[in-house]
Design goal:
Blueprint: E1 14-22, H1 35-42, E2 60-62, E3 71-81, H2 87-94, E4 102-110, H3 117-120, E5 121-131, H4 135-147, E6 152-156, E7 162-166, E8 171-177, E9 189-197, H5 207-218, E10 223-234
Parallel strand pairs: 3-10
Antiparallel strand pairs: 1-3, 1-4, 2-3, 5-9, 5-10, 6-7, 8-9
Helix pairs in contact: 4-5
């Protein structure tokens, strides 16, 4: 590899979209984009492109960092290399070398000139168990929310400001099913599945806000269990395009 006169690495030659899972037990938010990823990538031996400047960093972009304590089954990140490599080699080098609590799920060889993964994410699928209402009751409340023309919610910002917004256009799909695993008493619990909009230029849908809105529709407080983000959806789906692992 030949460095440029300014000391920066070779120009980018390949961009891989990494699909990975993350355990809910990962409690350090910096592991999504910070030192844990950088240390893990250094162990792979891959020819990773680095940013310019006094402190070059690996060219890794995580699509939508998960909240602390939330599991993810198909998260997205883009990694840029300075050499073109076959999918089998990239998969072998990445497998077992992601940050602790992360697992490689899939790989896609994407065009270098394509929009960033952050700009392409348009929605996310979530799954969670809710207690405090039966499946039938929750299904009715889901239908009520979907049929609504406006669902006004107030969200507290980090600077102490309260912002009012309409939750309804952020809900793309919403339905209730039997609890998984089955409830011990057979009642008072259900599994919620929802697809929420993830806008770059406005508020993104949040599962906890949907649960609060469902509770208000039922006139009672609902208890939400652990939340799993099943997958992120992009404006340009990659199924069938590019190289894939497995």
């Amino acid at each position: 590899m030949i460095d440029r006169p300014d000391g920066s690495p070779d120009e980018p030659r390949q961009r891989w979209r990494i699909v990975f899972a993350r355990d809910a037990a990962v409690r350090d938010p910096s592991s999504a984009t910070g030192a844990a990823w950088e240390a893990a990538l250094a162990r792979t031996g891959l020819p990773i492109a680095r940013s310019l400047g006094k402190s070059p960093r690996p060219k890794l972009t995580v699509g939508a960092p998960l909240p602390v304590g939330m599991a993810g089954e198909a998260e997205l990140a883009d990694l840029v290399l300075t050499e073109r490599l076959p999918v089998a080699e990239v998969r072998a080098k990445l497998s077992g070398h992601l940050p602790e609590g992360h697992r490689l799920v899939d790989l896609h060889d994407v065009w270098l000139g394509a929009p960033t993964v952050v700009a392409q994410i348009v929605a996310a699928d979530y799954r969670l168990t809710v207690r405090g209402a039966s499946e039938l009751e929750l299904d009715g409340a889901c239908s009520e929310l979907v049929a609504a023309t406006r669902i006004e919610r107030t969200r507290q910002k980090g600077d102490g400001r309260a912002v009012t917004y309409d939750l309804r256009p952020l809900i793309l799909t919403l339905h209730a099913g039997p609890p998984d695993p089955p409830s011990e008493d057979g009642a008072g619990a259900a599994t919620l599945r929802m697809r929420l909009r993830h806008a770059q230029d406005g508020p993104a849908g949040r599962p906890d806000e949907v649960i609060l809105a469902l509770g208000e529709a039922l006139g009672r407080r609902l208890a939400g269990g652990s939340i799993v983000r099943e997958r992120l959806l992009t404006a340009d789906p990659l199924e069938g395009a590019g190289a894939r692992s497995g």
